[in-house]
Amino acid sequence: MFGGLGQATPSPVEWSRHPSERERASQRNHRVAATDAIHVTTHKEGLFERLRSELDLRHYSPRTRRAYENWIRRLVTFHNRRHPREYGEEDIRTFLASLVERGASASTHQQALCAITFLFRQVLAIQSPWVEDLVRPRREPRLPAVLTRSEFTPYSTK
Fold it and tell me: How far apart are CA 95 and CA 1, in angstroms?
């Protein structure tokens, strides 16, 4: 009861005397409702806006978002700023081969490949068989940093 007159308790917006405060409150409520809406991309959105929105939608970490955006930017720059929809298998293979020629590690190559496959599958919605067939780099097996008994013996006598 508000004021003992049988009225319901007003919301904080109703308590306000200024219309601008009511407008701000309704805008805040509108923003919350807009973020809860189903994500729909439009054709008017640019490539990087769609990339960011897809990464946001899937809750990728900020570092992964930056890395993927940088890899896609490098890919587009490598192909003279053509849109990725125009790329074929050979264009992607050429880009990845250029990474190998410049001495990129297997993990760097893998990260670039993951960004490219995310672009084609999620952002551009292209389910092409050649995207699946891109060659994944093999990592060199790491040797353990543990010595066997026979290897340790010369060091233990000193």
Answer: 70
Buried b (16+ CB within 10 A) or exposed e, 48-68: eebbbebbeeeebeeeebebb
The burial of 157, by beta-carbon neighbours within 10 Å (0-12 exposed, 13-18 middle, 19 or more buried), is given as: exposed
Q: What is the mean pLDDT of the chain?
A: 75
CATH of domain 47-132: 1.10.150.130
Q: Please say whether the dihedral angle defined by the alpha carbons of residues 123, 94, 104 and 76, taken in this order, is positive or negative.
A: negative
Nearest to 47 by CA among 116, 127, 133, 93: 116
Contact (Cβ atoms closer than 8 angstroms) between residue 70 and residue 64: no
Q: What is the pTM of this model?
A: 0.59
Domain ranges of the chain: 47-132
Cα–Cα distance for residue pair 88/109, rounded to 1 Å: 18
Residue 2 phi/psi, 5-degree rounding, is: -115, 120
